[in-house]
Amino acid sequence: MVQTIKFETEGSILEVGRVIIAEGVLPHRLVLRELPGEFVIHTEILRIQCDTMACNVITFVHDSFENGTYFNFAECDVHGRFEAVGNARAMFYQRTRAQ
Q1: What does the pLDDT read at residue 54?
Q2: 84 backbone dihedrals φ, ψ, rounded to 5°
Q3: At CB < 8 A and 24+ separation, what contacts does 60-68 make?
Q4: How many CB atoms neighbour CB 1 within 10 A?
Q5: pTM above threshold 0.90
Q6: What is the mean pLDDT of each run of 10 residues along the chain (99 residues)?
Q7: Buried-most residue among 5, 53, 71, 80 (CB within 10 A)?
Q8: How far apart are CA 42 and CA 62, in angstroms?
Q9: Is 39 in contact with 95 (CB distance < 8 Å)?
Q10: Phi-psi region of 82 (alpha: psi -120 to 50; beta: other; left: phi over 0)
Q11: Closest CA to 86 of 68, 71, 98, 74
Q12: Is the dihedral of CA 9, 10, 11, 15 positive or negative?
């Protein structure tokens, strides 16, 4: 019986949605990432690892990113960065609520 669930999160991730586990698809979630000059909403594909055969601890591990929506800004433009992160967060929250 699973007693603990852990996540290994990739360093560029700012926000995460809930993990979707369904028959026929890999575990995944929406994430908001900050990369140089852009904020990106990606679908993060996850792998599941168990600590033992009894699987007392399940760890979700990053596998890949897919389907990006990009919000670009100039590194030296504080207002543009602020606007980009605001737009990215608004869309991220809208998409995570719709799941």
Answers
A1: 74
A2: -65, -45
A3: 60/5, 60/6, 60/7, 60/8, 60/19, 60/27, 61/8, 62/8, 62/9, 62/10, 63/26, 65/31, 65/33, 65/40, 66/42, 67/42, 67/43, 68/40, 68/41, 68/42
A4: 5
A5: no
A6: 82 94 94 96 94 83 95 90 95 91
A7: 71
A8: 12
A9: no
A10: alpha
A11: 71
A12: negative
Residues 29, 46 contacting (CB under 8 angstroms): yes
**Tokens, residue 10:** 């990739």
Mind spelling out the 3-state secondary structure of the chain?
CCCEEEEECCCCEEEECCCECCCCCCCEEEEEEEECCEEEEEEEEEEEEECCCCCCEEEEEEEEEEEEEEEECCCCCHHHHHHHHHHHHHHHHHHHHHC
The Cα–Cα gap between 2 and 60 comes to 13
